[in-house]
Amino acid sequence: MPIHDVSFSEVVRLVTLASSLADRFRFSFREVVDRFEGAPDTAIVGHTGTRHPRTVARTLLQARARRSEVMGVDVFRDPAWDILLDLYANTEPGETMMISVLCQAAGAPPTTALRYVYKLIESGLLLSEDHPLDQRRTMVRLAPGTAERIEHLLAIIGSGA
């Protein structure tokens, strides 16, 4: 819809909404606009009216990253969930990520993060494989069925149930 077809009251409503989101999630107004500008509707709201699971995952990751800052203490850790959420949110199905990159998402010391990655592999939620060009590196991806389980939980979170 061309901008000249939008009423002034609609523009005011959208600016107010963006400001409210910026305040609520501690983003700058520009960050809020950038997140929604040009985004396809399905990236924000699915056909059922619920938010897309990957959008929910990214929102959770951002909120979790700001927890310590907002609360003023650095005691909040859930490395296993952060690892799964980051891998789900930032890869396509079947795509791999280097363990070293994934460990950074854990928000924990590298040795702790690595221990959790291996626990997730042992539990069958992640699969590991050698890097195709560099045998010193290990790649991980979600095991079959893991994405669906994450999506189920994200759908519950996204619907507010």
Largest sheet: 3 strands, antiparallel
Class per helix and strand makeup: mainly alpha
Uncertain residue segments: 40-48
Q: Look at the structure and give the mean pLDDT.
A: 78
H and E string: HHHHHEHHEEH
Range of helix content: 55-70%
Kindly state the number of beta strands: 3
Note the gap between the termini. Answer: 34 Å
Detailed description of the structure:
- Helix content is 58%, strand content 7%.
- It has 161 residues and is mainly alpha-helical.
- The chain has eight helices and three strands; from the N terminus they run αααααβααββα.
- The protein has a three-stranded antiparallel β-sheet with strand order 1-3-2.
- Helix 1 (8-25) crosses helix 2, helix 4 packs across helix 5 (79-90) and helix 4 packs across helix 8.
- The chain folds into two domains: 1-38, no CATH class; 52-159, Winged helix-like DNA-binding domain superfamily/Winged helix DNA-binding domain (Arc Repressor Mutant, subunit A, Orthogonal Bundle).
- Residues 40-48 have low confidence and may be disordered.
- The chain has helices at residues 8-25, 29-36, 41-44, 53-71, 79-90, 99-104, 110-122, 146-159, and strands spanning 97-98, 126-130, 138-142.
Task: Please describe the topology of this protein.
Layout: H1 8-25, H2 29-36, H3 41-44, H4 53-71, H5 79-90, E1 97-98, H6 99-104, H7 110-122, E2 126-130, E3 138-142, H8 146-159
Antiparallel strand pairs: 1-3, 2-3
